[in-house]
């Protein structure tokens, strides 16, 4: 019996001249070791209304008891997030990369380097327009490669840099679910009347 191969058809990808396109992320990045995630939101296999549904997680992360997303403050002008296609058909994937530059080099920043260097972390960034994107997934390990620069001359830069990379099925997916952060809940669903 022949296989019925039906793929998804894209919708139009339009752009309006004059529309403002703000690059970059905001100063707060949220991170957690992957082992502290009990269950993941899901990515749809098809879309109902708009093609963007394919790139947006449905549901929220469920964290282990007493675990929270930790906040990592970064210098936004030095902290880009990029994605590029990798591999060959039919097994192509996307390599998502981020550089997070934290201005500190003291004990806490150094300890974070120690912990993240050999662990598997997940990161959530907020774009300038206010949408959240996830770097990390339940299929592939996330590499976090930290470095520090203590500077030399009086005008030298110093800080902690985290080079993050992970294979994913698309550029960093969007996330609209709850973020249970140490600083308080973000995207909390409205209370039932």
Describe this protein's structure.
Helix content is 6%, strand content 36%. The protein is globular. It has one domain (25-182). It has 193 residues and is mainly beta.
Any chance you could write out the topology, listing elements then pairs?
Blueprint: E1 25-33, E2 37-39, E3 62-63, E4 70-73, E5 81-86, E6 93-102, H1 107-117, E7 121-127, E8 132-135, E9 143-149, E10 159-168, E11 174-175, E12 179-181, E13 184-186
Antiparallel strand pairs: 1-4, 1-7, 2-3, 5-6, 6-10, 7-8, 8-11, 9-10, 12-13
Looking at this protein, list some descriptive labels:
193 residues, mainly beta, five-stranded antiparallel β-sheet, 1 helix, four-stranded antiparallel β-sheet, globular
How large is the share of residues in beta strands?
Answer: 35-45%
First-last Cα distance: 53 Å
The total of helices stands at 1
In the residues, how many domains can be counted? Answer: 1
Poorly predicted runs: none
Shape: globular
Number of strands: 13
What structural category do the secondary elements indicate?
mainly beta
Strand ordering within the main sheet? 4-1-7-8-11
Radius of gyration: 19 Å
Helices and strands, in order, run as: EEEEEEHEEEEEEE
Mean pLDDT: 92
Largest sheet: 5 strands, antiparallel
Helix content: under 10%
């Amino acid at each position: 019996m022949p296989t019925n191969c039906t793929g998804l058809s894209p919708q139009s990808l339009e752009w309006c001249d004059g529309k403002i396109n703000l690059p970059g992320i905001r100063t707060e990045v949220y991170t957690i070791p992957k082992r502290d995630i009990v269950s993941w939101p899901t990515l749809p296999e098809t879309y109902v209304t708009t093609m963007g549904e394919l790139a947006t997680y449905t549901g929220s992360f469920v964290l282990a008891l007493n675990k929270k997303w930790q906040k990592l403050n970064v210098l936004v002008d030095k902290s880009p997030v990029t994605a590029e296609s990798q591999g060959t058909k039919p097994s192509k994937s996307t390599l998502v990369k981020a550089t997070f530059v934290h201005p500190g080099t003291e004990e806490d920043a150094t300890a974070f380097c120690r912990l993240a260097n050999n662990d598997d972390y997940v990161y959530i960034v907020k774009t300038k327009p206010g949408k959240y994107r996830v770097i990390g997934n339940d299929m592939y390990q996330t590499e976090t490669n930290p470095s520090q620069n203590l500077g030399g001359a009086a005008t030298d830069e110093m800080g902690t840099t985290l080079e993050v990379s992970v294979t994913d099925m698309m550029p960093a997916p969007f996330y609209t679910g709850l973020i249970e952060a140490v600083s308080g809940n973000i995207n909390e669903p409205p209370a039932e009347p």
